[in-house]
Amino acid sequence: MLRLYHAWASTCSQKVRLALAEKELAYDEVVLNLRRFEQLAPDFLAINPDAMVPVLDHDGFVLRESTIINDYLDDAFPDHPLRPADAKGRAKVAVWNRLIDDVATLAIKKPSFQRNLRPYLQSLPDAEIDDAVRRMPNPETARRWRDAARNGIPEAELTAAHAELRRMLDRMQGVLARDEWLAGDAYSLADINMAPFVHRLSDFPEYDFDRQWPAVANWYARLRERPAFARAGFPVQTVVPKAQSS
Prior knowledge:
The chain has twelve helices and four strands. With 246 residues, it is of the alpha+beta class.
């Protein structure tokens, strides 16, 4: 049995849900509301002491990193393969995965926190924020939540993050101008793992895909046409009242 611990608006959770949908795998789910700090509950910390989603439990075998989870799913369930069979194709997927893990995953957090999370956090009592931040096991994550709640993400960090994201889109544009998908002619985990980050950026007004990165815009349109995209669930982040789910 597969059980996925995830949050709907988490980009890394979206990666795994999309892979599960593409492979047509059934799973149980435990949805965490990160805005209510459910990732800090003792029961979840026992599963992932880093307090991060997603987490996959496959018959007691627990995995905690989204890119590794997707590789595992493709290996453990060979139907509907999501990586090329040849060594060169797999290497291309691995190169994109490295970029996603090292650049996209980190860079997207700062503008996302500033735009989507900060207004919500500012509605909470200081004591509630302070208590949650103290319980966060990762110091950098704690700092980001504290910054978002107090003064906002520093402008220099936002500028640097946007520069990284634009370089990533430039790189995608160069590849997708000649190839249908990121790793060549076949849809793969490179596309799946990148999808949530481009989807998130599509909601930022300063990213005009059609004008600035037309090949990326076409790629993104093809992604959205796939039935698995709708099944995976890609909600738009919004500011919500404290009593509601995010």
